Amino acid sequence: MAERGWHTPVAVGGVLGRWPAVVGADVAEHCAPESFEEGVLVVRADSTAWATQVRLLVPALMRRLAEEVGESTVTKVVVHGPTAPSWKRGPRVAPGSQGPRDTYG
Questions:
Q1: What is the pLDDT of residues 53-62, one digit of tens each?
Q2: Integer Cα distance of 45 and 35 in angstroms
Q3: How far is CA 88 from CA 45, 67, 94, 98, 99, in A?
Q4: How far is CA 31 from CA 15, 34, 54, 99, in A?
């Protein structure tokens, strides 16, 4: 693995595969890793409350990830909340409208 430069991808893949063991069962129940590219780990939470909670836990998560995969492997953790429906498309959208805020004010 080391000869082919696979050490980091294998280590990160192992951590992502053991996500509940790394972050704990409670946190893992409400958020999951989405991607890892160039040192940035993207995590998606199932609610905005959990996204806020995980953002507060990022320093502890960074320490835990450093223990698991090495100090400079994960350089940043980005936490996203749940995806919301788009109001820009649909059968009753006027051309040039800005979604629901278009009718207010």
A1: 999 999 999 9
A2: 13
A3: 24, 44, 9, 7, 5
A4: 14, 9, 8, 29
Number of H helices, E strands in the chain: 5, 3
pTM here?
0.67
The better pLDDT of the pair 100, 81 is held by: 81
Residue from 36, 105, 9, 93 nearest 44 by CA? 36
In 49-103, where do the E strands start and end?
A: 76-80
Q: Give the pair of three-digit tokens for residue 24.
A: 């704990």
Any idea which residue has 């951590």 for tokens?
Answer: 15
CA–CA distance, 49 with 29 (Å, rounded to integer): 13
- Dist CA 35 CA 11 (whole Å): 14
Query: Where are the extended beta strands (E) located within 30-92?
Result: 31-37, 40-45, 76-80
pLDDT tens digits, 11-30: 566 667 788 888 889 999 99
